[in-house]
Amino acid sequence: MFNLLTTTADKFRSVELGEASLYALLGFLIVCLGIFLLIFIVWAIGKFMVKVNPAKAKKVQEKPSVIPVNETPEPVATTNTTNAVDEQTVAVITAALMAYYQTNNPKCEFIVKRIKRL
């Protein structure tokens, strides 16, 4: 058994540094090309799905980012503890957040459900 290992080890030649670095470079390039190919395939499928079903894409884009003034917000449950925030404070904080995000990030779609003191 030991003779078999020594005879097979003698048959293989050693790889020089230049050849090993060439193999490593080729391996890196093949892996990067494979990753780029996968990214392109996923991107192309996404574009195809938007063209096939444009109703869902329009539905996502049509969501309003601002709460209309005539709608009343959901009532906030307050407790009798000293850490409770009154409704006027909640309204002021919500208005300030909406004004900030409307000027800086017009695609922001959020709803403040609860403000909780930590």
Tell me what you see in this structure.
By secondary structure, the protein is mainly α. The chain is elongated, with a radius of gyration of 31 Å. The N and C termini lie far apart (71 Å). The longest helix has 36 residues, at 17-52. It is built from 4 helices and no strands. It has helices at 2-11, 17-52, 54-61, 87-104.
Low-confidence segments, ≥5 residues, pLDDT <50?
A: none
N-to-C terminal Cα separation, in Å? 71 Å
Helix amount: 55-70%
- Quick check: average pLDDT? 76
> What sort of overall outline do the alpha carbons produce when their principal axes are compared?
elongated
Q: What portion of residues belong to β-strands?
A: under 5%
The tally of helices reads 4
| Quantity of strands, as a count | 0
Supply the helix-strand structural class.
mainly alpha
Largest sheet: none
Give the helices and strands as they follow along the chain.
Answer: HHHH
Radius of gyration: 31 Å
